[in-house]
Structures are given as C-alpha cells and as structure tokens.
Specification:
The complex is a heterodimer of chains A (534) and B (191). With 534 residues, chain A is an all-alpha fold. Chain A has one domain (3-247, 266-519). Helix content of chain A is 70%, strand content 2%. Chain A contains 22 helices and 2 strands. Chain A has helices spanning 3-15, 30-46, 53-68, 75-92, 94-100, 111-120, 124-160, 163-180, 185-199, 216-219, 224-247, 267-289, 295-309, 321-337, 340-345, 351-363, 382-411, 420-439, 442-460, 465-488, 500-517, 523-533, and strands at 19-23, 26-29. In chain A, helix 8 (163-180) packs antiparallel against helix 20 and helix 8 (163-180) runs parallel beside helix 21 (500-517). Chain B is 65% helix and 4% strand. Chain B has helices at 4-28, 48-70, 83-114, 124-127, 133-154, 159-176, and strands at 35-38, 41-44. The model of chain B has no long low-confidence stretch (mean pLDDT 90). The interface between A and B is large, with 66 and 74 residues.
C-alpha cells in the first residue's frame, strides 16, 4: 500500500467502519457516533468545576472496554471517544471561567483574567464566542502539525535508534518531565524512579513475581488502571475533600450580571483576533510537543505573548477578547501536539495522553510508538491504518467543535453551578465502580485506595504525580529496551554509553535536571544586581 | 517548597527507603540477580529494574538532602500535615470503611436472612446476577459513601442529599449494569 492509500484506509475505517444504526437507509458509523458522544461529554464535563478531561477519560475507559471488548475493532470507537472527550473538555473549561470566574479545568485559569471582566460588562456571549473561535482554531492548527510531524519523527526514530538509544530516549523523556513539572526537579526525579520501582512489583521475566514479599496479591503485579486512577484522580479527590472539609464554608452566592452588551462576534472582529490566535497556537503547539509541560504553561506563555502584541484601548486583564483568544488558542493547541511524543515515540507527555496509551494497551493490536509508522508496501500495516483513523477521529471532533461546539458551550453554563461537595463523592463512587467493572475484584479497589493515599501524600509533599505515573507506564518498555540492548551488546556493562546518540540523550537528561534545579534568583535580587551594574 | 525541616525529613525517608530497596529488598526478593549468567550467556535479571529504580531514588534523595541542608531557613510554610489531617482521615476512613463493608457483606447477609429456603442452601455466588440480590450491596454501600461523605463535608444532614445520593447510585447501575450482561457491580465479582 502507498502512503496515500494508508491515509485513505484510515479515513474509511472511521467513516465506513462498523455501523451503529441507520437513518433512512444511511448507516451512521459507530466511530463517528463515539467521537460525537465523547465530544459532548467533554464539553459538559469541562464546564463542570471539579471534573476535567483526563478524569472523564479515566472513568469512561472501563465502561468503553465493557461495551466494546478487547478486539481490534474496539480501538477506533474507544480512542475516538477519548479524543472527543479531550477536545470537548478543552473548550468546555472556558465556560465557568468566563461566567463565574471559576476555571473548569486548570488550563482555563488565564481565561478568567479577561473572560470574567467581559461577563461583568454584560459581554459573556461575546467572550464565550471568542473562547470557542480561538480554541477550535488553535486545536485544528495543532492537529495539522501532529498529522505532518508524527509520521516523520517516527520514521526517523525507527531508522536511526537502536535498543540502547531508545532506552536513553525514555530516560531523557522521564528526566524532562520530572524536571519541568512541579517546583523541584529532584523531587520529580524521585517520583519518576518511585514509579519505576512500583511498576517492577510482581512483574519481570522469572516465574517468581519480584518484590512480592511472597504474597499472591503482589505477585500478580499492580493493576495499572487502579494505580493510575488512584494516583491521578482519587489522590486529587482526597486533597479536595480535605480542603473542603477544612473550609466547610457556606456556598458562595453567584451574583448574576444582566447580559445586555454587544454579544456578537463579527467576521471583522474574528479577523482582528487572528494574529493573537496564530501566535498562541504556535506557542501551544511547540509547548504541547514537549513531554510534561502541559497546557497551563502554554496558556500562560500565550497570554504573555499576546499582552506584548496588544495595542487596543482595553488592556489585557480588564476584559478584552484578545486576552481570551491568546489564552484559549494556546491551551487548546496543546491537545493535538501532545500526541506527537505518544504516536512517534510511545511516550505519553501528559495525563490525557496517558489514557490514550492505556486504552491502546488494554485493547491490544495498537502499540503507540515508532513501529506504528511503517509504510510497508507488501503487506498491510493495520496499526498504521488505526493511526490514520485516529487522525480522522481528531479531525471529526474538530468539525463537531466548529459546527456545534459554541452552542453546546453556551448551553452548559448551568453545569458550573454544581457544587464540589456534591460532585466529588459522586466522582469517588463513579471511579471505584469503574475500576471494579474493569478488574472485578475488591482487591483492585484496595489497590486504588492505597494509590489514592500515595497520590494524596505526593501532592501534600509537593512531589509531582505525573512523573510517577509516566514512569510507571513506561517501565516495561524501558526494561525491555535495557534487556535487548544488553543482549545485543554481548553483555557489555557499558551498553548504554556505547553509541554517541545515546550518550547525547543521557547527557541531555543530566543537563535538563541540573538546568531546572539551579537556584532561581528572586526578583529583588535581580533588581539589586541590575542596580549594582548600573 | 515545603519548610526546610520537612524537606530534610522527606529526603531522609527516601534515602532509607531506597537504601533498603537497593541493598535488601530487590536482591533478596527477586529470582535472578541484576546480571546473571545462564548457559554461558550473560543477561539482565529481574533484580535490575528495581535496583536501578532504587538507585535513582537514592541518588536524587541524597542530592535533595544536600541541597536542603545548605538551604537557608526562611519563613516557615504551613506544615503539610497537622492534627486536623488525622481527624479528617479518621472521619473519612470511617465513612469509607463502613461503605465498603456494607457493599461487600450486605448482599450475602440479606441472602442468608431473607433468601429462598430449601433442602439445598443457596449461595450468593448462585444469586449474584439475580435481582434484587446483585444490587443490595452496591446500593447500600454506594448510598452510604455518597451521602456520608457529602454530609461529612457539609457538616450537616440534608434531605436533598439523600435524593442526590440515591440518584447517583441508580445512575451508576444504569451505566454499568443494565446495558451489559458481562459486567459485574461490586462486590459480585468476588463471589
């Protein structure tokens, strides 16, 4: 098959795949329906403070696996749904940020700066339209970059990297994530190695499950979904419970402002926003392609860049559409490009990508990584067809977003009023039920609760959780690369340092940790230093 | 960053944990050593990954300890844990334990008290897919969890929360159980 035929096969796998139902004799594709369903859930969930895209993906996954099973046919509907959720939640997060000054997702924090003042001026509708337009523009741009870059990067990786280099690349990715997430790179590295350690319990090649202390419970290994959901979701829920329990304050009465201003967003205004959207989309795409950095930093950088460009009468932070556009384009542009490391290297760069990998690993038949992009002509590479199907699903989600995303956003305002003290206990039960449905054993619930406590402790001790989770997921790949590189080298203990490329990766790993660990000069210190020079 | 003393204790904990992991737990609790020879072929054994992981924790926790020892003591941050943390976990743990116990045992207990009687005793395993037995544990445990935690956080009991807890449990039954024949609600997979 030629590359174009692979692309077409991917598109057809989505459009003309298994049919969900028929309307007037016209079959509606199951994958298309799932992308739409995921998108709807994502917007509504994103608009609900306390829920987030990754959480929705986490609890959806076991349900989806129950529905579709573990056959390769399940891959596109399940991953399409997750992609829809990811994209929907990004736009939905702006709704409570604009209407109630409460970001629905962390990356919508910067949207409150201009969105809420606009709502207070009676321009909530215009603010929502701006957020939607910027968000979907940034997201579409980022997806196009993903579609063009990921295959090339994967082909290069597959052509030039051996087992040793791949092991060194995984180490570099973990070091980078550990260094840039959280306040202390050293604590990030401790979290990453702790993730590797926990992942090694009950696994390995020998008959005896290592580190199992002779127990059957540990010899079976740590259930991945229970561990990941425990640390990422339940740990966060525990911290939120404690904070609310400590506060136990009366609900803040939301003051409604009558929306009487000009709420339209004309084409001329959209054209005026394009430079801000363009720059922020670029910033978000670059930031998103780097593992671990995430959309919050992208939004901050996009906002800061937009602020420097802005020359309008209303300043940033006082309720200007350009501020919303700069933020939303940047944080939405992350969602496409953060799949670049997933699809080209098999390395998840953020929490959303973790669940895409989990879905692929749970179902089987699709192993995200450089081997996916083998354009074999003699035989059909089904993984490549799935990859292009995934790209098609992403584009479909964008089309849904362009066409109806704005209207759904506007209709989701009421979700922002659900209080966290009601929502979070429901979230806890939903998560535990989802884990049980997957594992069908109370032991998995105990594991999840144990990892919830671990996630709670990590958060309270300001140790980032993302390096832990990503190292936990990558541990098997890393060990496999170690074993194979060692075997290929003929048992050379210096197998990791033999190739110049792996040396470069390892040197970069050390450099990145040292660079981000260097003591930061406080602002007062900088001012004093400047005065001293002057 | 937490206060200097907390960071130092944290680093010491990880140094001790990693030391035990690298030198005691990993080598003694793995079938093959980090590197072993079998039929004249040298291979990486099962102890390698946990030893590398433990070694990494050891290296970076020692570095963290050194940095913290040289760090100047600044205005102390709020401690991460205090008496309120213990009180919270006692309350939260109590509600959670009660909910999980109800979830696990309510169904079998109800069956033994009110189940069909006959010559052959009926086990919960036989009835775990049958209405109403399959829902008893999940409904009671789930309701206690949602209603108990909401009331705990709000500090008062409200009737409206009773309804929202019941609705939550019913919604989850409709999501996870009604559409599927193969999915089991907790605790039915354990019997």
């Amino acid at each position: 098959m030629s590359p174009l035929e692979y692309v077409w096969a991917g598109v057809m796998a989505v459009i003309a795949g298994p049919v969900a139902f028929e309307i007037f004799g016209l079959g509606i594709s199951l994958t298309v329906l799932m992308v739409f369903g995921g998108f709807l859930l994502g917007v509504v969930g994103g608009a609900t403070p306390g829920l987030s895209g990754p959480f929705l993906m986490a609890v959806s996954l076991p349900i989806l696996l129950s529905i579709f099973g573990f056959t390769p046919d399940a891959l596109l509907p399940v991953m399409g749904f997750l992609v829809g959720v990811m994209k929907g939640a990004t736009v939905g997060g702006a709704v409570p940020a604009i209407l109630f000054n409460t970001p629905g997702t962390p990356d919508a924090m910067m949207t409150t700066l201009d969105g809420y003042p606009m709502a207070q001026k009676g321009q909530a509708g215009k603010a929502l339209r701006t957020a939607h337009f910027a968000s979907v523009s940034g997201d579409t741009f980022s997806d196009l970059v993903l579609f063009t870059c990921a295959p090339f990067l994967a082909v290069i990786v597959e052509a030039y990297l051996g087992f040793g280099e791949k092991a060194a690349l995984i180490i570099l990715s973990m070091a980078f994530i550990a260094a840039v997430v959280g306040v202390s790179p050293l604590k990030g590295m401790i979290a990453a190695f702790l993730g590797l350690f926990v992942a090694s319990i009950g696994t390995g090649e020998d008959f005896y499950g290592r580190l199992s202390l002779g127990t059957d419970v540990l010899a079976g290994g740590v259930p991945m979904i229970a561990a990941v959901m425990g640390v990422l979701i339940l740990g966060e829920v525990l911290v939120a419970f404690e904070n609310m329990w400590r506060d136990r304050r009366a609900n803040v009465v939301v003051k409604e402002t009558p929306q009487s201003g000009d709420n339209r967003l004309t084409w001329k205004e959209r054209k005026g926003l394009m430079p801000f959207i363009g720059i922020s989309a670029l910033v978000g795409t670059v930031v998103g392609a780097l593992p671990g950095i995430g959309s919050t930093l992208a939004a901050t950088l996009g906002y800061a860049t937009g602020d420097k460009m802005h020359k309008g009468p209303v300043k940033f932070g006082q309720g200007t559409p350009e501020g919303i556009a700069a933020t939303e384009a940047a944080n939405s542009a992350v969602s496409g490009s953060n799949l670049i490391p997933v699809l080209s290297l098999g390395i998840p760069g953020n929490v959303g990508a973790v669940f895409i990998i989990l879905a692929a690993e749970s179902i089987g038949g699709f192993n995200p990584g450089p081997t996916v992009f083998r354009f074999s002509a003699s035989e059909v590479n089904s993984e490549l067809v799935i990859a292009f199907g995934l790209f098609t699903a992403m584009m479909l989600a964008n089309i849904f977003n362009w066409v109806i995303g704005g209207r759904i956003m506007a209709a989701c305002g009421f979700m922002s009023r659900i209080s966290s003290q009601v929502l979070l206990p429901m979230v806890l039960l939903l998560t535990l039920t989802a884990i049980y449905a997957q594992e069908t054993s109370f032991t998995a619930i105990y594991f999840a609760l144990a990892f919830a406590v671990l996630g709670y402790l990590l958060r309270k001790l300001r140790i980032p959780t993302l390096p832990f989770v990503i190292a936990f997921i990558l541990a098997a790949n890393l060990e496999n690369a170690f074993r194979q590189a060692f075997a290929v080298s003929g048992g050379d203990p210096w197998f990791l340092f033999k190739s110049p490329l792996s040396l470069v990766f390892l040197a970069l790993s050390v450099a990145v940790v040292i660079f981000f660990s260097r003591p930061k000069i406080p602002e007062t210190g900088k001012a004093a230093a400047k005065e001293g020079k002057g | 960053m937490l206060s200097r003393s907390v960071e130092i204790w944290l680093a010491i904990f990880f140094v001790v944990f990693a030391g035990l992991a690298v030198f005691v737990w990993a080598p003694l609790d793995s079938e093959t050593a980090a590197i072993y020879e079998f039929r004249r072929q040298v291979s990486i054994g099962d102890a390698m990954l946990p030893m590398v992981a433990g070694g990494g924790i050891l290296l970076f926790s020692v570095a963290h300890l050194m940095l913290q020892l040289h760090r100047q003591s600044q205005a102390e941050d709020q401690p991460p844990f205090d008496r309120a943390t213990i009180l919270f976990f006692v309350n939260f743990g109590g509600v959670l334990a009660l909910s999980l116990a109800l979830m696990f045992w309510a169904g079998p207990l109800a069956l033994s008290l009110f189940g069909p009687t006959g010559d052959e005793p009926v086990t919960y395993r036989q009835m775990r897919s049958t209405f109403p037995w399959k829902y008893i544990g999940f409904v009671l445990g789930g309701f206690t969890l949602v209603f108990g935690l909401t009331s705990l956080i709000e500090g008062r009991i409200r009737w409206v929360r009773v309804f929202s807890a019941i609705l939550t449990v019913l919604a989850l039954i409709f999501i996870f159980d009604v559409p599927f024949d193969t999915t089991l609600l907790p605790p039915n997979g354990d019997f």
